[in-house]
């Protein structure tokens, strides 16, 4: 028997196959929802079977009531045993409800929970596959809204479908069969209510769907702005801008409130209209069956039976119509996550060649690149050859393309023109995950997560020995810091390493890089935000890190690039000078002036 992990993996594969289909975006949300549950059709079928068994009193009890009333009213033609038999059957079926309902919910819940977990897992994996450009365009708060709120709405939609919609349909069909079997005239009268229910849904469908879509977009916008506000909290507090921060979100909250209010009114009008129409039909049904009994065409007990059956039909149709706004909201969430899952804006590179060992020879061949939504080139016609083990420094004013060069080497973006070649292999042919496991990146703002120091250093490396770990710690000048912590390597640090200083965070990032034993190092202004003492410690750690490895350093301070083999001076996306520190200091007065200004800063 498959365990839950295997089942979840198969669900993910099914979902991936579904959303990799190029035609999925032409499929409506109902078909997508049905596809999500394809693998669980057996569980759903069993759940419905046990539901029908546990629901048998709904159809049996009205017949029992009619039989008892008819037996009482015509005692000369019926015995007392008939009453006891009917009551006994009813009690048995009512007690059977307990185990049947439990089994019904068990199968139903398994199907829903597996799809919910599989959908979230597929979304998380899709996020890892999407390009950095896509992530740049889609704000983090909107991503969270899709993974959390939309999947929750789909789970609620599934549960409402299986606990309300399908049961109502089963009640409706079962009751209609019994009524038609008893009297086709009464059955036809009862069926007259169905067109009115369908008409009600049709009249309100478009307005409810449109308002749900607008409400969902306002939710995503609010989630994005709240996420941004939380990120900006240190800046906001430091400058006393709390009121400004709140005022930026207030308009979004107002729009969300107004849209929610509008949606509530539409749903209330829909629900009240449905109720009024159906109640009128109930009175007409009572009058009609009462007239038949008055004419002697049916017995008195049958009036009670038909009224009870009518209430079942009425309740079923009312449930179906009332649940429609919930279904519309859930289907909009299906549409929302489908937008992400069908996106073909994937990882820029899709090569398959795995390199077991990276030497570090890198060549830029006439590279030109520009970001989305801009007409100006960030890099223009860049050509550069770097030998294995060489240390290259990139300097220049902000916006000159230094960090973009690093992003291209990581493979975050792909140049529109030219090629990047690693050890003789074009990046287009490389399998990115293998290649990136051979490089290390240390950024200006270290990215740490809430966990232990050990977890942050060994992130993604489950088999690092303590000896390897402490070698990396010593190389990063981090031993004294860790030994001063209450639990050493097992000390938990806050989100983003909030309990550490800037220098400590940078040295943890460097230790993370060293422990991977990379062949290519990318340092993006790794010391620019540090004080002199922290910079000295980090710089010493960096010198150990880059020894014998191909290194690219984006920096402003002379102390960081003085010992680089070559310094590349960039301006407006092109290379304007190349040379050693001494050569450039002698040759470029502009370079000297620029560095002096940065040193003064």
UniProtKB/TrEMBL annotation:
A GO molecular function held by the record: ATP binding
Signal peptide coordinates: none
Subcellular locations according to the entry: Cell membrane
UniProt main location, coarse: membrane
Topological type in the membrane: Multi-pass membrane protein
ABC transporter domain segment(s): 362-597
UniProt cross-references to SUPFAM superfamilies, sorted A to Z: ABC transporter transmembrane region (SSF90123), P-loop containing nucleoside triphosphate hydrolases (SSF52540)
Gene Ontology cellular component terms for the protein in this record: plasma membrane
TM stretches of this protein: 44-63, 83-100, 162-180, 186-204
Domain ABC transmembrane type-1 residue range list: 60-329
This protein's UniProt keywords: ATP-binding, Membrane, Nucleotide-binding, Transmembrane, Transmembrane helix
InterPro entries tied to this protein: AAA+_ATPase, ABC1_TM_dom, ABC1_TM_sf, ABC_transporter-like_ATP-bd, ABC_transporter-like_CS, P-loop_NTPase, Type_1_exporter
Pfam families named among the record's database cross-references: ABC_membrane, ABC_tran
Family assignment from sequence similarity: Belongs to the ABC transporter superfamily.
Stated name of the protein: ABC transporter ATP-binding protein
């Amino acid at each position: 028997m498959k365990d839950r992990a295997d089942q979840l993996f198969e669900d993910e594969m099914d979902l991936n196959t579904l959303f990799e289909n190029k035609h999925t975006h032409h499929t409506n949300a109902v078909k997508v929802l049905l596809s999500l549950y394809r693998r669980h059709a057996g569980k759903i079928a069993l759940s419905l079977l046990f539901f029908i068994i546990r629901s048998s009193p709904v159809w049996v009890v009205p017949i029992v009531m009619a039989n008892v009333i008819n037996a009482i009213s015509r005692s000369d033609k019926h015995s007392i045993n008939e009453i006891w038999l009917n009551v006994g059957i009813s009690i048995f079926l009512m007690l059977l409800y307990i185990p049947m309902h439990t089994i019904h919910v068990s199968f139903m819940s398994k199907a829903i929970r597996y799809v919910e977990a599989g959908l979230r897992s597929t979304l998380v994996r899709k996020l890892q596959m999407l390009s950095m450009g896509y992530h740049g365009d889609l704000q983090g708060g909107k991503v969270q809204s899709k993974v959390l709120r939309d999947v929750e709405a789909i789970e609620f939609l599934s549960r409402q479908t299986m606990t309300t919609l399908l049961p109502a349909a089963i009640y409706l069909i079962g009751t209609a069969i019994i009524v038609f079997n008893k009297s086709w005239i009464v059955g036809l009268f009862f069926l007259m209510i169905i067109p009115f229910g369908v008409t009600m849904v049709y009249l309100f469908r478009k307005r409810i769907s449109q308002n749900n879509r607008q409400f969902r977009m306002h939710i995503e916008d609010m989630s994005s702005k709240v996420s941004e506000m939380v990120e900006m909290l240190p800046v906001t507090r430091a400058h006393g801008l709390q009121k400004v921060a709140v005022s930026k979100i207030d308009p979004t909250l107002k729009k969300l409130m107004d849209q929610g209010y509008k949606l509530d009114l539409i749903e209330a009008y829909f629900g009240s209209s449905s109720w009024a129409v159906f109640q009128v039909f109930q009175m007409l049904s009572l009058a009609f069956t009462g007239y038949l009994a008055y004419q002697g065409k049916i017995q008195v007990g049958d009036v009670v039976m038909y009224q009870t059956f009518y209430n079942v039909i009425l309740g079923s149709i009312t449930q179906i119509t009332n649940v429609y706004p919930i279904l519309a909201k859930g289907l909009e969430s299906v549409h929302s996550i489908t937008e992400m899952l069908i996106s073909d804006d994937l990882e820029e590179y899709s090569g398959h060649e795995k390199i077991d060992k990276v030497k570090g020879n890198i060549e830029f061949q006439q590279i030109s690149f520009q970001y989305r939504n801009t007409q100006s080139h960030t890099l223009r016609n860049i050509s550069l050859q770097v030998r294995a083990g060489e240390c290259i420094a990139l300097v220049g004013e902000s916006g000159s393309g230094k960090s973009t060069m690093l992003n291209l080497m990581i493979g975050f973006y792909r140049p529109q023109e030219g090629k990047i070649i690693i050890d003789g292999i074009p990046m287009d042919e490389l399998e990115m995950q293998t290649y990136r496991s051979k490089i290390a990146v240390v950024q200006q703002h270290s990215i740490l997560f809430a966990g232990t120091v050990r977890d942050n250093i060994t992130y993604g490396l489950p088999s690092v020995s303590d000896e390897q770990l402490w070698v990396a710690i010593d190389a990063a000048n981090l031993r004294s810091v860790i030994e001063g912590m209450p639990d050493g390597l097992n000390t938990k640090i806050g989100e983003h390493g909030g309990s550490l200083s800037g220098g400590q965070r940078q040295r943890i990032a460097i230790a993370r890089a060293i422990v991977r034993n990379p062949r290519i190092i990318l340092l993006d202004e790794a010391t620019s935000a540090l004080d002199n003492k922290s910079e000295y410690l980090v710089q010493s750690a960096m010198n150990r890190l880059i020894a014998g490895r191909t290194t690219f350093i984006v920096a402003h301070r002379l102390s960081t690039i003085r010992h680089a083999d070559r310094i590349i001076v960039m301006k407006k996306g092109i290379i304007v000078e190349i040379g050693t520190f001494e050569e450039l200091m002698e040759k470029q007065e502009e370079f000297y002036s620029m560095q002096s200004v940065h040193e003064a800063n």
